[in-house]
Amino acid sequence: MDYEDMIKGMELCARSRDKLLRNRLEEAKDVVKDTWQTDMYGAMAYCNIGFIQSIMTFDRKNINQTILDLDASLQFIQGLRHKDGMFSYLLSYVKNRDFSTFSEVEKHAELMYAELLLVRAVLTFAEDADNLVSFVKGALKIKTCHSLYKEMYSVLDLNETQRTSETVDGVDSDSSLFDRELTGGIKMGWGAFSLGLSLLPPKILGLLEFVGLKGEKEIGMRLIREAEEMDVLRSFICANGILNYNTVLLQYTKSAAYDGELVDALLSKWSARYPDSMMFDFFSGRRAIISGNVEEALELFEKCEQSGIDWAQFYHLCYWEKMWCHAILLQWDQAASFARQLFTESRWSRTLFSYLHLAFQFTADRESEELEKIATEVPKHQLKIGGKHLHIEKFAIRRARSFLQNEKFLCLPAIELLYVWRFLPLMSEESLNSVIPLIEEALEECQNVQPYHTDYPADDAFLCHLLLAVISIELGNTTHALSLLRTALQTEDQIGLDHFYIPYAHYELGCLYIKLLDFSQARAHLNYAKDFSNKVKSYSLENRLLFRIHSALSELPALQ
Fold it and tell me: What is 243-284 written as a DSSP string?
């Protein structure tokens, strides 16, 4: 490859990107289908689209084909990488390689190799999901990617202050174009690693730091933002990452780091460029949910469904969000309908979808004749990733089994799910006040119905107190919330099955003490929740809670 080949490859990659953002995914792939085996930018576009297709469909045939394409692309790009002599290779273990000796093609090949190896690593986890060996192989590939990005960023960081743009008649020269694309790609990759690793709980991060993987949230976000602002081929990926981080991920971690101004700015910028893009309409819908405009969000997701995108699996994202929108509005029948549609059409966690269907249908009509049939479907479709079952699926199966064994009964399953997914804080005051009588009725049932539906009335009473406390916090009644959480924790020794309620209650109590500016109590309860696995070997939804605890603890130093 030479300069002209790289320029042609970048032009085709840009055309493919435009097709992708205009909802024409198959056309986007067609743009580079004749060049991806001989052009590294074509390979990047072709394999990334294949990766999106594989993740969205979770279809074994798509995954296997994308892995074959990635392996072929990596082999091709490996041939373009700089060839180190034996002395240079050994020296690279103690100091960075001298990138000034690399040609432009070799520099870009180094970046492309790291990018596609990371994509290959992610698909390795799905290649043989029942095999722990796949997990180990994927982890090793990620470690290699991290080392490559770290080395490239170290060189970039040293030289960036000396870097100047070369222009000819006001137009970027070839060398400046290559330099911007290279810089943008390195910043995106290293930024993504730094941000992603920083979000992991200490229990996991400690192991990763032992092998040299370390993240810094502020640096990661800054680098991704800088790459997005450079207007390079990867800028839309950076925008996607920032929007996903702010509008999706932060909701589940209860972080105070949400940047609404940045979200609005990015949505305005990219929606103006691609006004009919399903991607940015989707994030606009997520933004509306977070802002409490659920009806507006439903309209935006409806618009996404009318976008004409040629992969039906993207509609499943909209079904998922619309299901939660209807649940937030307490429209249980509609929520159940979308859960059923996801179970029927999507290859993603059918175990979870069937339990969501059960929970919402039960809440809508406890006498429905469908319930038993739905519950029996829950355990039939359990997935494994990296040789392990998903925690949320194990939770769903336990709940479905409890339903079948205990008089076809569940205690507040839909409200519990709204809590687990952190949608309660996004509900209107009217909806929250409408939920309170449902919980109080369930609590009275726990305390007064003899015999109770299950052998664990104390578990269900604990749940009721926990849910009432969270709702009281959202309604601004912190004193009542504090009383409810203390009442719940006084009965923790009576919990017979759902021990995970205990660390979740301590977590909520810790977050409440942060609101009350009692940081020593906050830290004590958050640490108790963090270390709860030392008391109970494992409990439901543990990883989900650890992420939230990590987020809360990371905010404490700034508040003290």
Answer: HHIIIIIHHHHT-S---HHHHHHHHHHHHHHSTT-HHHHHHH
In this predicted structure, which of 32-41, 137-146, 357-366 has the lowest mean pLDDT? 137-146
Helices (H), 160-216: 174-198, 202-210
Distances (CA, A) of 179 to 143, 168, 182, 377, 461: 26, 15, 5, 54, 62
Residue 208's contacts (CB-CB under 8 Å, 6 or more residues apart) are 197, 200, 214
Residue 352 burial (C-beta neighbours within 10 Å; 0-12, 13-18, 19+): buried
Tokens 């970027």 sit on residue? 172
Q: What is residue 352's three-state secondary structure?
A: helix
pTM (two decimals): 0.89
CB 346 within 8 Å of CB 353: yes
Average pLDDT, integer, range 307-331: 90
Task: Please tell me the distance from the alpha carbon of residue 189 to that of residue 187, in angstroms, as a whole number.
Answer: 6
Q: CA neighbours within 13 Å on the CB side: how many for 523?
A: 9
For the record, the structure tokens of 60 come out as: 């074994």
Check: CB of residue 232 under 8 Å from CB of residue 184: yes
The answer to whether 54 and 123 have CB atoms below 8 angstroms apart is: yes
Residue 508 near residue 465, CB atoms below 8 Å: no
The bridge status of strand 171-172 relative to strand 167-168 is antiparallel
